[in-house]
Amino acid sequence: MRRAIAPAIALLAGALGAAAMAQPRAYAPGPQNISLPPDWQQRFIRYTTVDKPDRRIIRNIYINPEAYAALRPGEPIPYGALVIMADQRARLDGAGQPLLDGNGRLIPEPAFIAVAAQQKERGWGEGYGPDLRNGEWEYARFNPASGERIDGPLNACFTCHLQARAQQDFTFTTWDYANRTR
Ligand code: HEC
Questions:
Q1: What are the pLDDT digits (tens) for 114-146?
Q2: Domain assignment of residue 138, given as a range
Q3: Residue 134's closest CA among 81, 177, 60?
Q4: Is 120 a pocket residue for ligand 1 (Cβ < 6 Å)?
């Protein structure tokens, strides 16, 4: 019996080594962790829209269907959640005031003018200081036409979501949606 153990251990070590090598490259904090899936506009679920009359914009907020299905009241937002916020300009009248539809909602112009995203994955967030870290969330901005990531500072994303919504897993509408009685 004894003799059989050493090869078994060697085999196991080999398998573990192979598994470790198959791991994706080590995580480093930053927006490069987030990419827009090419089909997000077809596949993602728009769970809410927020009118911002003061800023003359409409915000469409989408989540991937896998995370949508796993949202539970009172629980953290599921790992793998990718929330995308795509803004449209509101249609204005001749005096520059936003027009309203029959339900009192802003009327969107077709194109997206800004796209922002937040994504949560197990192990993310490591490397941010306590004044910035949003649990396991990362943030990114994208060019609304090309879908490419936009370089630029993101500290404000972290600080605002941290200060306002640390108890809601760092989200505004996502948490509220998951916890709304339906
Ligand atoms: C001053 C506060 C503030 C800053 C700065 C901020 N956000 Fe938000 N964010 C909000 C609020 C409030 C909402 C809810 C929608 C609304 O009312 O505009 C929101 C919503 C979102 C959403 C939709 C999911 C959710 O939590 O409701 C995403 C994605 C998002 N923000 C990403 C970003 C990114 C990326 C940045 C930085 C480029 C950023 N935010 C900067 C306050 C902020």
A1: 999 999 999 999 999 999 999 999 999 999 999
A2: 34-179
A3: 81
A4: no
